[in-house]
Amino acid sequence: MNFTMDLPGLKGVKVTKMEEREGFIALHVEMPRTPHRCPSCGERTERIHDYRIQKVQHLKLFERWVYLFYRKRRYACRCGKRFAEKACFVERYQRQTVEWNQAFRLRLIQGKNFTDTANQFQTSVTTAMRRFDQLAAPLVKKVDHLPPRIAIDDYKGDTKAGKYQVIIADADTRKPLDILPDRKADTLKRYLQEKGQQTEILNSFAFGLNNGFIEGLNNQTKVIKRNAFGFRRYDRLRSRILMHHPFKHQTFGVG
Questions:
Q1: No. of H helices and E strands in the chain?
Q2: What pTM, to 2 d.p., does this model score?
Q3: Distance CA 61, CA 65 (A)
Q4: Contact between 187 and 180 (Cβ < 8 Å)
Q5: How far apart are CA 149 and CA 171, in angstroms?
Q6: According to the model, what pLDDT value does residue 1 have?
Q7: What pLDDT score was predicted for residue 253?
Q8: Is 62 exposed, middle or buried (0-12, 13-18, 19+ CB in 10 A)?
Q9: How far apart are CA 229 and CA 224, in angstroms?
C-alpha cells in the first residue's frame, strides 16, 4: 500500500527510500534541486559538483529510532567556489536534525536526570551535560537588583558547594530569582547588601504576604534533586532549578 504523509520535522524534504534495518528505520532523503546563491560572488547557480551521504539522527518514528541518510549536493559556481546546499532540517556541522535538538533541549529542562534523558535520545551523558550548560548560559541570567519584597528558604542540595543552598524568590510574582551556594549568615548578608536589599526583614509585618509558595518551590526542588540522584556541581543544580519553573508547562509540538 502506497501513501504520502508529512513526517514531523521533514516538511519539504523528499524521501526517496525507506527501509527497516536492525534496530532502526533508515530514511534516504534529499532536498529539491533549486538555484543556490554562491557565498563568494553572490551569483546564482544550479551546477552540481558532487554528492555526499550524511547520516543524521532524527526523532523516533513508531517507537523506533530513525536515521536519515541525506544525499547532500555540492554546487559549483563559475567563480570556482564549491559549497553545500542549504537544508531546512539539519544545521551545518550537526549530526542531529533541528527537530531532534529542539526536543532534546526541552527534555534536558523537564526530564528526570541527564542519564535518563541521554538514554531516551540515544546519546551520551557527557553530551547531555554539555548541551545543558550551553542551554543554561543565556537563559539563567544574573540578578542585578532584588525587588522590595522577597521570600527566602533553604533546601538540602548536597553539592560540592555545600550541603544546603538558599533559594530566593520574588514575593509578588512568586518566581525564583537566584540560589546561593550555602546558607551561611555571612553569605546571605553579603548577597543582600550587594543586590541593594535592606537587611531588616519587616515586610511580613507591613504586607499580607506569606512564605507558603516558596515552600512549594522547595518541594519541586527536592523532586528534581531526588529524580537526578543528586548533583555534583552546584551550578548545574542551580540552572536546573531556575530553568524548570518557567518551562514546566511548556510542551514540544512536532510537525
A1: 7, 10
A2: 0.73
A3: 7
A4: yes
A5: 6
A6: 37
A7: 53
A8: exposed
A9: 9
Residue with cell 550537526: 94
Distance CA 73, CA 36 (A): 11
Exposure b/e, 65-100, CB count within 10 A at least 16 = b: bbbbbbebbebbbeeeeebeeebebbeeeeebbebb
The residue to which cell 536519515 is assigned: 68
Cα end-to-end distance, the chain, whole Å: 23
Q: What is the largest CA-CA distance in the chain?
A: 78
Residue 248 is predicted with a pLDDT of 67
What is the SS3 string spanning 13-77? CEEEEEEEECCEEEEEEECCCCCEECCCCCCEECCEEEEEEEEEEEEEECCEEEEEEEEEEEEEC
> How is residue 8 written as a grid cell?
514531523
Length of the chain measured in residues:
255
Q: Chain-centre distance of CA 115, in angstroms?
A: 15
Q: What is the pLDDT of residue 18?
A: 92
Mean pLDDT, 10 residues at a time, over the chain (255 residues)? 64 90 92 92 93 94 91 94 93 92 92 91 94 90 84 81 86 88 84 70 54 76 79 83 74 52
